[in-house]
Amino acid sequence: MGGLFDSDLIPLLFVLVMLANVFLDRRNRRRRQRELPQEQPQKTAEPKQAEQQTQAKPEDIAAEFERRLKKTTEEAQARKRQNSRESGVVHDGTRVRRDDGSRVHRDGEAMYDHTGRIHRENEALVHDKGKVYYDPRGDYSYDEAKMNAAAAAFNAHYEQQAQPAPKKRVKLKHAALVNGIIMAEVLGKPRALNPYEER
Question: Where does the record place the region Disordered (predicted)?
């Protein structure tokens, strides 16, 4: 019984669809070729107009460039004026400050280079005792020797726990070994010191 989805049916459908596409494509091309000669006179008229425009353009290129240049420079100047109004510069006598508090430097001013002494020569330095640095170790009773000793003791204890304890060796005498071998051979018991004792 031939099923609907036999192995030969699917490739056959694929080939038929491809042939239909090729046939439709050729038919559409023929239609376009028939319509194309009717549109060609219009297309030939358009290039003549384009040639006339290109011949007129070389005279206008310089004027167009000047117009665009003037427009961009005017826009740049307008932007600059707008930014200077919005920058938030405040003039307070001799100094010029922005809204964020930063100072505006002018070309005639000398820049402070921060290399010399900050206080004046004849002025005594005033020390604020609240700003003097001190070592905080005394506050927390920090003793380096005690801390090192405690760390060494902890490390030694940890190493002992990490290592497995060695097994205790049992020293057997000759008689005990002989008795163990005899017990293993005769009775079929394992060689042990106390073969009958339950553990």
Answer: 31-101
CA angle in degrees (0–180, nearest 5) for 139-144-145: 130
Beta bridge partner(s), residue 91: 96
Give the pair of three-digit tokens for residue 84: 């200077």
**92: phi then psi, degrees, rounded to nearest 5:** -125, 80
Place of tokens 């700003």: 131
How do residues 123-175 score in pLDDT, each as one tens digit? Answer: 666 666 666 665 555 555 667 888 899 999 999 988 888 887 777 776 767 77
Taking only the tens place, the pLDDT of each residue in 8-31 is 888 889 999 999 999 999 999 999
Q: What's the half-sphere exposure (Cβ side, CA atoms, 13 Å) at 57?
A: 6
State both tokens at 47.
Answer: 């290039």
Say which residues have a Cβ less than 8 Å from residue 125's Cβ, sequence separation at least 6. Answer: 119
Kindly state the tokens that stand for 159: 């190493």
